[in-house]
Amino acid sequence: MDRRTMLVDGGIAAITLAIAVSTLAVGGLGTPSPQSTPLDALGVVLAVVASVPLALRERAPVTVYVVVGVASLTLMMLNYPLDFPLGAAIGGYGVAVRYSGGSDLVRRSALAAVVGFGPLLVVSYQLAGDDLTRISVELTFLAVMFVAIWITGDRSRLRRERIVTLEERAARTEREVEREHRLAAAQERTRIARELHDSAGHAISVILVQAGAARLLHERDPERSKRALATIEDVARGTMDEIGRLVRALREDGQSDLTPAGPAAIDDLLDGFRSGGLALTSRIVGSPGAVPRSVASAAYRILQEALTNATRHGDGSADVTVRFAPEAVEITVTNPTRTTATPPTTGGHGIVGMRERAVLLGGTLQAKASGSLYELSACLPHFAGRAGVTA
């Protein structure tokens, strides 16, 4: 039992005690009866026993209900003007909440204990010598009230169980989505690793050819030999730059999945979507220069996925801007969305894969929907200018 529950139950017990003592002190809720027993030390003790145990009702609901119920019935049998057994009502509610969903025997026993308090009230008033016909309406109300307490407690239990079920389902769904996102990211890393393998293999081939040329031309043509060595240096530097940025990617198999790279590949990609029926407006800004293959491949994949989303979720049109800045490739894809479509702002695997590619290159990717307009923007930094060569 946590601290908050203890404080709440303690407050309920204190309020119940205050109500009970006040009721006994003023001689009941209505006009005081001349036959009522005035409040004395015994009445205070019984009022305490009929109220204070409620502070522990979450820990031992049955024990608390029995103690509070017996004390309340004793007050009535001794003709104390309790009139309304609030403590017993609260204790009965606790029993209903805890045990209304138990086994058949437990449920029936709890039902009998709570609803049976009504007949026990009749017996207590009869033992006190009251005229039952005179208070028949009050007794009927109290009996119906304890039936209502059982029903209310049962419904409260069902509501709590439903809330717990929904919370567990939401947590399970969140875990499944997170697992799917990790899987999508891992698959994208695998694809990136295969592309890195192909790029590195190409760079090594260039190095081997240039190294052979430098060896053969070392004495016959020293200048060409130096240029070959310089090419080897530039290719090695560019390849190391790519490996350093993508070293976290893991490769699961040896299959090749080479992604097209370069401005020509982007133009072909845009033409392919146009021929597929997408009304596409495109702008290529700046000169590609010596963009590393990893950045070019990532730009191609991101643009491909963004246009696929625009075709699937959009109204058939899109606006594309690819800007080749000195140290980054910037991509912006904007498209109107259909009113019945839900744009994949965060949850789709395509968004996860695009973001993974951008992050591995030290870049960023943003996807947002504003009204009926959906925009995806990516920034892929590169340092080809310093490397001096594209791998």
Automatic annotation (TrEMBL):
Ranges where the DUF7134 domain occurs: 2-160
Location of the Signal transduction histidine kinase subgroup 3 dimerisation and phosphoacceptor domain: 188-253
What EC number(s) is this enzyme filed under?
2.7.13.3
This protein's record includes keyword Nucleotide-binding: yes
UniProt KW Cell cycle keyword? no
Domain of life of the source: Bacteria
Transmembrane regions = 12-31, 37-55, 62-78, 110-128, 134-153
User: Could you tell me what reaction this enzyme catalyses?
Assistant: ATP + protein L-histidine = ADP + protein N-phospho-L-histidine
A molecular function (GO) held by this record is: kinase activity
Instruction: Read off the Gene3D superfamilies from this record.
Output: 1.20.5.1930, Histidine kinase-like ATPase, C-terminal domain (3.30.565.10)
Pfam families, per database record? DUF7134 (PF23539), HisKA_3 (PF07730)
Q: Which UniProt keywords apply?
A: ATP-binding, Kinase, Membrane, Nucleotide-binding, Phosphoprotein, Transferase, Transmembrane, Transmembrane helix, Two-component regulatory system
The record's InterPro entries line, in alphabetical order, gives: DUF7134 (IPR055558), HATPase_C_sf (IPR036890), Sensor_HK_TwoCompSys (IPR050482), Sig_transdc_His_kin_sub3_dim/P (IPR011712)
How is this protein named in the record?
A: histidine kinase
Q: What is the lineage of its organism?
A: Bacteria, Bacillati, Actinomycetota, Actinomycetes, Micromonosporales
